């Protein structure tokens, strides 16, 4: 009798834990939220609050890894959110970023990256599942400080502002030439069905898990 009770208790605990265990995509959203909060509150060098208000889309890639000796590589994963016709950020599109480089380099570095897009046209490559930074959209290092851009055009002539945070400081991590690729598998896991990046951005008959409310609070 005791053995049967113990087995029942173990089975119940396993079911309970599985129900509360976060998926890889939910863990990624937690990382994204933490990254944005950190970059918005850095002393003196925070991302200007006005930037998200004026942006049409934002990509956040926590922990981009760059490694190499002569030939280098770059890899990371994160999400893109875009604004709807009411000016609110929509559901996340899960993405990967891949890049390579040639030149004198050594070691491994890790950076948290935020890309702020001026227009949705800069994301047009998502329709075909990928686009290239610096080719399909011009890049510039983003302004910092809470007063940056007040009374002026935050975006100037650039299409995308780049923020790369390495060891607590903004560094010159180059993402020019890197490909941003839609992670179809992650999107399928998260939304429970095959869905295109365009449909996600346009909220077309898509029900997202409750965790997206964390993104709403940090972006909207």
Question: How does this model look, in words?
Answer:
There is one protein chain. The chain has one domain (22-213). Helix content is 29%, strand content 29%. The protein has 6 helices and 9 strands. Strands 1, 2, 3, 4, 5, 6, 7, 8 and 9 form a 9-stranded mixed sheet that branches. A hairpin with a 2-residue loop joins β1 (57-68) and β2. It starts with a helix and ends with a helix. Mean pLDDT is 79; it is low at 13-19.
Q: Which features would summarize this protein structure in a list?
A:
alpha+beta; nine-stranded mixed beta sheet; 6 helices; 29% helix
Give the topology, please.
Blueprint: H1 2-20, H2 24-40, H3 49-54, E1 57-68, E2 71-82, E3 93-102, E4 108-117, E5 130-132, E6 139-141, E7 160-166, E8 169-170, E9 179-182, H4 184-191, H5 197-201, H6 212-219
Parallel strand pairs: 6-7
Antiparallel strand pairs: 1-2, 1-4, 2-3, 3-9, 4-7, 5-9, 7-8
């Amino acid at each position: 009798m005791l053995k049967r009770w113990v087995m029942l208790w173990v089975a119940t605990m396993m079911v309970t834990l599985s129900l509360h265990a976060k998926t890889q995509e939910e863990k990624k959203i937690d990382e994204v939220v933490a990254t944005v909060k950190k970059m918005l509150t850095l002393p003196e060098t925070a991302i200007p609050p006005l930037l998200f208000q004026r942006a049409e889309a934002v990509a956040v890639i926590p922990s981009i890894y760059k490694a190499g000796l002569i030939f280098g590589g770059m890899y990371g994963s994160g999400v893109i959110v875009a604004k709807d016709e009411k000016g609110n950020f929509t559901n996340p599109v899960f993405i990967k970023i891949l890049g390579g480089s040639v030149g004198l380099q050594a070691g491994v570095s890790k950076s948290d990256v935020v890309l702020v897009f001026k227009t949705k046209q800069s994301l047009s490559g998502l329709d075909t599942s990928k686009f290239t930074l610096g080719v399909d959209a011009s890049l510039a290092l983003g302004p910092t400080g809470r007063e940056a851009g007040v009374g002026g055009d935050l975006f100037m002539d650039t299409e995308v502002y780049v923020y790369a945070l390495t060891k607590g400081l903004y560094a010159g991590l180059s993402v020019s030439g890197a490909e941003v690729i839609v992670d179809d598998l992650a999107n399928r896991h998260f939304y429970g069905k095959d869905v295109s990046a365009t449909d996600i951005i346009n909220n077309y008959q898509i029900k997202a898990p409750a965790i997206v409310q964390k993104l709403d609070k940090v972006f909207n």
